[in-house]
Amino acid sequence: MILIDSLPDPLIECDFENVYYPSEDSFLFLDHFRKSIKPTNFDGIDLQEVDAVLDMGTGTGIIAIFFQMLKSINKRFNPRIYASDILKESILCAKKNETRNNFTSQITFYQSDLFTNFPSNLKTSFNIITFNPPYLPSSEFIKHRKKIDYSWNGGLFGFELLLRFLKEAKLYLNLKKEHYIYYVSSSKTDLDILNKEIMKLGYRNEMLRKTHFFFEDICLHRLRRLRD
Ligand SMILES: C[S@@+](CC[C@H](N)C(=O)[O-])C[C@H]1O[C@@H](n2cnc3c(N)ncnc32)[C@H](O)[C@@H]1O
Q1: Binding site membership of 57 for ligand 1 (Cβ less than 6 Å)
Q2: What is the DSSP letter of 64?
Q3: Is 151 in the pocket of ligand 1 (CB under 6 A)?
Q4: What is the tens place of the pLDDT at every residue in 163-192?
């Protein structure tokens, strides 16, 4: 029997130059899930209560495919798995990686700017949402001129896209059940302002783990809705 804490990383390849190749931030998610998902619970949530999982900004699909691998080794974990990205190339790349890991059309993919192209019946569906967003501050001179900018450019302060996501995500969380949103932040942004904005949106924010990478600290966080 494969144990969750020794589940390997998914096999990932990427032939598309604009797609974000997994890095320290991507592995912060996988490392946390390996430690915190137990045979009967997902970071404290009963595994059988998890109906739908979304990996927003999926890139190569690494996080969504990891969930699919988990599903294949633990029958108690049987959610529908969704993944989306604004880039068509990411969706093509993630689908190839899904097949590379011996899953065929198990994950539902959407090419979408955040939730724009999601069907409305997915509202109030998700127990678990992950988003490794573009989180670096931009400059007023740089908009999204190149596709690869979608990987890093979080807006002038670095967190505008994340805040837009968190506003929209409220509609898609299943608030009747236990739920979490996991996201990554960088010390290159003003984390005090970001935390205040997140609280204003009605989320409880916990920092789970931190790692130092080149010129910044990157942190994995877990959010829960406090109120409607
Ligand atoms: C830092 S990368 C993370 C990729 C992957 N999840 C990982 O952890 O390796 C950020 C991803 O968010 C996507 N993205 C950027 N803006 C987006 C938006 N408005 N809607 C959906 N995805 C977006 C990018 O294309 C990119 O794939």
Answers
A1: yes
A2: H
A3: yes
A4: 999 999 999 999 999 999 999 999 988 999
